[in-house]
Structure formats: structure tokens, C-alpha cells
TrEMBL record:
Species this chain originates from: Xenotaenia resolanae
SMART domains (UniProt xref): IG, IGc2
Protein name (database record): Ig-like domain-containing protein
PANTHER family membership: B-CELL RECEPTOR CD22-RELATED, VASCULAR CELL ADHESION MOLECULE 1
InterPro entries attached to this UniProt entry: Ig-like_dom (IPR007110), Ig-like_dom_sf (IPR036179), Ig-like_fold (IPR013783), Ig_sub (IPR003599), Ig_sub2 (IPR003598)
CDD domains in UniProt: Ig
Length: 175
């Protein structure tokens, strides 16, 4: 499937009426992707051409060109290994027009865990470890990105359990 799509305009900056302007879409796909260009909700062109060329652009060509989510990224805060009892925020972002809707899934679970750009897990436990996927979707397509969480036991809990066990053994021994 097409991966890492991106769109660009040439020349960049201010567009002058009557000049040539090229919109280019690119993606990593095998076999090569087909491209469809939309202006607002109107289909502009559909072909295997990755470029939409305006040889003499007019003010009537102005508008929002629509595209599926691209450049999807997932971030974790705080980063790194998580200690049980804390909280973690997963954030999903993408470049999409219209704006994307986000849905969160945990590996091997059918139903979504959350919706929205941020997914917050409070009071994390080791069983929260695993792969979490964010799906960004709009009317033009979707893209998925995955992040791996590792939650470790709080060392102070382990020490407290050892102390409790030692006290129980001592109490039983002294009887």
C-alpha cells in the first residue's frame, strides 16, 4: 500500500496569476500508486500521474486541495520505560485535509481503546505494556502508526513486598 505520502507545490511561496504551477504528490508504493486530486469536494483529476499542472493558473483555481492523512507520527510522554502507577499520554498527529479523526487500538484487541488525538492511560500497570496503534482517517483515506509501551513494576513495591514477607516469616518463627 502507499506509504509516507506527501504533497508539494512548485514554485513555493506566492502564486502569481498566469504563471505555471505544479502540484506534486509522492508516496512509496509497489506497485506504483494511482493519484486522485480533489479541490474542495470536487474531483479535479484521477490518473496515474502524480502531478497536477496548471500551465496558466487563474484566481478561479484557488481553493483547498484535499488529501488523505500523511506524515503520521505517534509520540509518548513521558518517553522511555514507564513505571507502574504513573500515567502516560500517547499523541497522534498527521497532515490531513480535511482534518483527520483518530482512533486508538491495542494489539490483539478488536475494539478501540479510545478516540481523539490524545490517549491518556492513568495508573499504568505492566499489563498495559504492548503495541498501540493510532489510525488517522478522513474522507480521502487513512494511515496507521504503531508505538510500543513497556511498563515495569515500581521497585519500591517489590521492596515493600519483601519486607512484608520477611515480617510474616519472623512473626511465625517467633511464635
Amino acid at each position: 500500500a502507499p506509504q509516507l505520502p506527501s504533497a508539494s507545490v512548485s514554485p513555493s511561496g506566492e502564486i502569481v496569476e498566469g504563471r505555471s504551477v505544479t502540484l506534486t504528490c509522492s508516496s512509496d508504493a509497489n506497485p506504483a500508486a494511482d493519484y486522485t486530486w480533489y479541490k474542495e469536494e470536487e474531483r479535479k483529476t484521477s490518473s496515474n500521474e502524480s502531478q497536477l499542472i496548471f500551465s496558466s493558473i487563474q484566481s478561479s483555481d484557488s481553493g483547498r486541495f484535499i488529501y488523505a492523512p500523511q506524515l503520521l507520527s505517534v509520540s509518548v510522554s513521558p518517553p522511555g520505560q514507564l513505571v507502574e502507577g504513573g500515567s502516560v499520554t500517547l499523541t497522534c498527529s498527521s497532515d490531513a485535509n480535511p482534518a483527520a479523526n483518530y482512533t486508538w487500538y491495542k494489539e490483539d484487541e478488536e475494539s478501540p481503546k479510545a478516540s481523539g488525538q490524545n490517549f491518556i492511560i492513568t495508573d499504568v500497570r505492566p499489563e498495559h505494556s504492548g503495541n498501540y496503534s493510532c489510525e488517522a482517517q478522513n474522507t480521502r483515506g487513512s494511515q496507521i502508526s504503531t508505538v510500543h509501551l513497556v511498563v515495569v513494576r515500581d521497585p519500591s513495591v517489590k521492596i515493600m513486598n519483601i519486607i512484608r514477607l520477611t515480617l510474616v516469616v519472623l512473626c511465625l518463627w517467633t511464635r
